[in-house]
Amino acid sequence: MDLIDIGANLGHESFQHDFDEVLARAREVGVVHMMVTGASREGSREALRLAKAHPGFLSATAGVHPHHALEVTEEGMAELRALHCLPEILAVGECGLDYFRDFSPRPAQRIAFEKQLQLALECGKPLFLHQRDAHEDFMAMMKNFDGRLGKAVVHCFTGTKEECFEYLDADYYIGITGWLCDERRGQHLRDIVPHIPANRLLIETDSPYLLPRTVKPQPKHRRNEPMYLKHIVEELARDRGEKVEDTAKISTENARGFFGIA
User: Fold this and answer.
1) Residue 207's domain spans which residues?
2) Using CA atoms, how far apart are residues 2 and 95, in angstroms rounded to an integer?
């Protein structure tokens, strides 16, 4: 059973002490490729470094998360453009809007998002998107680029059925994480995931965040890591009424097509 984790923050400091072991544990459960998320200027540089160090197993995205929107200066955009000339960088992002935390002013978030949408238009790469509590503005900005952008995935989807259907109507892919396994916050997702068409389904851990609460026993350190992708796909298959092997196969095929992974 081959699996692809489309979103792992492997540059996070919590992985520094056992990085090689994390990769080995992922391989043991069938993870054959991982996308290292670049969510800031520094994080995108680190994602590139890791992808270069592990060719064929790791690739990377490069972008600026809305929390870091103020980094999207003229210099910052020049750096992103340079990164997107490199073969290890396969998608623009993580980018989007986050009105839940509001760590950056909303006007700055919208400016940063628009510039990265323009970058995706220029370089022709798919989009790795973030949206939290900003659906209306997010969709309005995406629709300004209707018909001009390539593929897009709403990563770590946690929204409503109505939001999901609107994304699907726009031909976006949906990224499912261990949020699905959280009986406190993710129960509604169990009712939504059966409605996601097979050809729009992607899976991810968002490591080190969102450790699936259904993992028993829970590790004392509470850190999520890519080996738990197998656990997420098992939960997802159950909720979709599918064989685990079938859910794994289609999500992996989708990831290969989305990012252009051989």
Assistant:
1) 3-35+46-215+226-259
2) 28
